[in-house]
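User: Can you recover a sequence for this backbone? Please restate the input before giving your answer.

Assistant: Of course. Working from this structure:
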């Protein structure tokens, strides 16, 4: 068995303005590094399907899903929030991104793939139950976790979020949900300024100060994530894989390196191997320095697939 790589050309057509950092070239940067690293040939590629209303409505109120469908413009651009916009292709891109989460979960749960990486955009972890936010429209990791539960009977899904921004949308959706444990690191104080006030017991948030790097990441994972994950005994691990905490990424001020992304993935893979038969689904979130994004994503995928 191999690692699945789920993507779709529609995800390249979603654009939010000429200078917007969340741009199609991000996916091309990952493709370039798959070729440069030589690992692309070991991945099994899949086209992301469109998520259905039923799949989305496990996470978002159906009224929200319909409002997004209605907001999609026939031409030009509409803004959903100051950072998040839709062009005529954005709806299909967002449905593909969420659909990738569904397909990846199906592949891994059916045993048709050991693990899966979804190279899709828009990202999802800021999307709240009923609110688009921070480049995100539908919460892709949440769609994966709820699909795992409803379609495959998974009782415990761990969501691992190492994006530089706190996954406030994921927290909004799963706070207090006994079927999900969320473990995250993020720069704080920083956008979206959440993650530290009275988190529910199923939220293992580790805020990191500006300037923190691999040493602080290792401490957070060893001290906070791993004990909580071992106690939770996940049947499936879903990554919110953002690479914007990289030292070369000037979106924020953390200093992770390519090797740190390999390391953190190795730690979580050990948990997945022990408790979850190695089942891992990874959804791309942030990462805006194209070179660092491509290299770090490849480091992450190599570990997912045992190709390191
Ligand atoms: Zn981010």
């Amino acid at each position: 068995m191999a690692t699945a790589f789920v993507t779709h050309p529609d995800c390249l057509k979603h654009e939010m303005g000429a200078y917007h950092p969340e741009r199609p070239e991000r996916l091309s940067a990952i493709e370039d590094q798959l070729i440069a690293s030589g690992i692309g040939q070991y991945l099994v590629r899949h086209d992301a399907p469109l998520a259905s209303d039923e799949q989305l409505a496990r996470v978002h109120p159906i009224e929200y899903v319909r409002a997004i469908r209605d907001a999609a413009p026939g031409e030009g651009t509409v803004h959903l929030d100051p950072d998040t916009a839709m062009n005529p292709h954005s709806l299909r891109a967002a449905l593909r991104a969420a659909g990738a989460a569904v397909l990846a979960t199906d592949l891994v749960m059916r045993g048709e793939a050991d693990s899966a990486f979804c190279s899709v955009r828009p990202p999802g972890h800021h999307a709240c139950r009923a609110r688009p936010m921070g480049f995100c429209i539908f919460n892709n990791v949440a769609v994966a976790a709820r699909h795992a539960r409803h379609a495959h009977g998974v009782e415990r899904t761990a969501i691992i979020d190492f994006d530089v921004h706190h996954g406030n949308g994921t927290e909004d959706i799963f706070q207090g949900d006994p079927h999900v444990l969320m473990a995250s690191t993020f720069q704080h104080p920083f956008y979206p300024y959440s993650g530290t006030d009275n988190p529910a017991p199923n939220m293992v948030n580790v805020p990191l100060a500006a300037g923190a790097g691999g040493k602080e990441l290792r401490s957070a994972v060893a001290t906070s994530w791993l004990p909580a994950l071992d106690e939770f005994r996940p049947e499936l691990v879903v990554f919110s894989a953002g690479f914007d905490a990289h030292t070369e990424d000037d979106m924020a001020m953390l200093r992770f390196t390519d090797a740190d992304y390999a390391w953190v993935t190795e730690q979580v893979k050990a948990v997945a191997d022990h408790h979850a038969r190695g089942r891992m689904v990874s959804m791309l979130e942030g990462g805006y320095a194209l070179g660092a994004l491509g290299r770090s994503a490849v480091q992450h995928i190599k570990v997912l697939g045992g190709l390191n």
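That completes the design. Residues 245 and 252 are 7 Å apart (CA to CA).
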